[in-house]
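Subject: sequence -> structure tokens, single chain

Hey, anyone have a minute? Need the predicted structure for the following. Not urgent.
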Amino acid sequence: MRSILLIATMLIACSHPRGEQATVLAAGTSADTTLDTAEERDTAEKTKTTAVERDTVTLSATALSMERQGMVNVQQLDPTIEVSLMYSRPDNFTGRILYDDLREGYLHPKAAQALVKAQKRLKELRPELSLIIFDATRPMRIQQKMWDVVKNTPKYFYVSNPARGGGMHNYGMAVDISICRVGGDTIPMGAKVDFMGDLSHIDHEAQLVAKHRMTEEAKANRELLREVMAAGGFRPLRTEWWHFNLCTRQEAKRLYKVIN
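Reply:
Had a minute. Here:
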């Protein structure tokens, strides 16, 4: 009789935590993002599980907002991808800190999974290198700050106007990215990330090399970046070697929600 009571007590005690965890996961489900495929649902589940396990970590208000709107932290899917958000520092083209509290790289689940594929391809080709994120999902309020800086200057060309729906970053479907040595510096790309000028354009790199404005090494590095990003399904932007979109602006506006 004692043995039976002991077994029953153990079964009740073991079943309770799992019930609590199931309740937490159900409550954490977001309705803001449509997950169309089994792969995307799996991505979201991995992220939610990790969020439960890291309940001792305090997320910033912006990070929490991103997660509530269905975005996922890329490093939860692949911790080998490095992140150094350029708008969390003043050394960007605006000269200002735009992210007061964000340090993580968040993307729509589709884009996050695509970036994991790109990193996998890079590791197959050059295991000593890694992708490094400089900007990912950008809330529209940050887009407005950026637009206010450039709207009456020649640099307005490089920033999407929030009044016209913003840009791909505002949907979580674009990433500003480069390649670095694992645990080290970025490799040469001919122009720094966020440089607004023709050195950043990708449609006349051979001429830039011929005129000694860019090295062959930098050109080859850009080509490597485009190759691995294409492996994940990303498309480059003509005027910014570091910017890649997963879909067109028309598709983003039709299928996805703006992140606020």
